[in-house]
Amino acid sequence: MTVDHAAAARLPGWRHLYSGKVRDLYVPEALHPLGDVILVVASDRISAYDFVLPTPIPGKGVVLTQLSLWWFDQLSELAENHVVSLDVPAEVAGRAMVCRRLQMFPVECVARGYLTGSGLVEYRETGEVCGIPLPEGLVDGSRLPEPIFTPATKAELGEHDENVSFDVVSGTIGADAAARLRDLTLAVYSRAEEIARARGVILADTKFEFGADPVTEETVLGDEVLTPDSSRFWPADEWEPGHPQPSFDKQFVRDWLTSPASGWDRRSGDAPPALPADVVERTQARYLEAFERLTGAPLGGALR
């Protein structure tokens, strides 16, 4: 599937390069004082089941950007990140970052501390997740004995990411690079899990993207980090293994799309319908609640 590039804003001094499911990327129209950089703009688009939905969630891009910036600051001692400036065009203030361009590794670096989602499906079939054997008797929402690295291939827009083993990653990017990504992923997840837990939030799993700085060859944390789009956050006081957990993310959207009320058949290949107002409002509220619980502060300013 494709994203309508015409939907990306025209920004002075920047040329639109690419639109993904949620983010629009721009390059400078002239030599930039900070060097080889890219403008990353988080839109209010929301995706589910590999479709970009026709209905945005107002302010979602602001939440994603501001929460990523907060996490980058919390994790700065563990991993360098790609943000170099917040001096962005006024049209995208609050939802954009000027970032150094990286040579991105072609792997989704997923860390799991709890069993759910595609990991649960794989465990039920094989007793393993991405080739890692797990104890018997785990259920949906079970806490794992220790966090595990369960990478996935990066799919093209509209395709499914595929869980793969560590050996597959090693064969793709080399053993040293794969080990470095695994160790960084687990270190960052473990620190973030501690921070979230202290705020009454369980970080069940998350995915990171890393790239190599083309000049220093340093491994750098890029894209977004630890947002409701890239992570499963659960309220700690409601955690109860054995069934799906309430979450601070787009679960309201997924649940409505798969309910009879939507009239949508996932197997048809047809695009999903527009979201009703109450689903939009409840989803927006969960994203805002995730931000406020984690950071301890209201988002502040108008959501644009």
CATH topology value of the largest domain: D-amino Acid Aminotransferase, Chain A, domain 1
Query: What is the ordering of alpha helices and beta strands?
Result: EEEEEHEEEEHEEEEEHHEEEHH
**Overall pLDDT confidence:** 92
- CATH class (first level) name of the largest domain: Alpha Beta
Class by alpha and beta content: alpha+beta
CATH superfamily name of the largest domain? ATP-grasp fold, B domain
Q: Profile the largest sheet.
A: 8 strands, antiparallel
Note the total helix count.
6
Indicate the overall shape: globular
Strand content: 25-35%
Please count the beta strands (DSSP E, at least 2 residues each).
17
Detail the poorly predicted runs: 1-6
Domains counted in the coordinates: how many? 2
Task: Return Rg in Å.
Answer: 19 Å
Helix percentage:
25-40%
Question: What CATH architecture of the largest domain do you see?
Answer: 2-Layer Sandwich
Alpha carbon gap, first and last residue: 27 Å
Description:
With 304 residues, the protein is α+β, with helices and mostly antiparallel strands. The chain has 2 domains: 5-100, Phosphorylase Kinase, domain 1 (2-Layer Sandwich), CATH 3.30.200.20; 103-238, D-amino Acid Aminotransferase, Chain A, domain 1. The protein contains 6 helices and 17 strands. Strands 8, 9, 12, 13, 14, 15, 16 and 17 form an 8-stranded antiparallel beta sheet that branches. A 5-stranded antiparallel beta sheet has the order 1-2-3-7-6. Strands 4-5 form a two-stranded antiparallel sheet. Helix 1 (60-74) runs parallel beside helix 6, helix 3 crosses helix 4 and helix 5 packs antiparallel against helix 6. It is globular, with a radius of gyration of 19 Å. The two termini are 27 Å apart. Mean pLDDT is 92; it is low at 1-6.
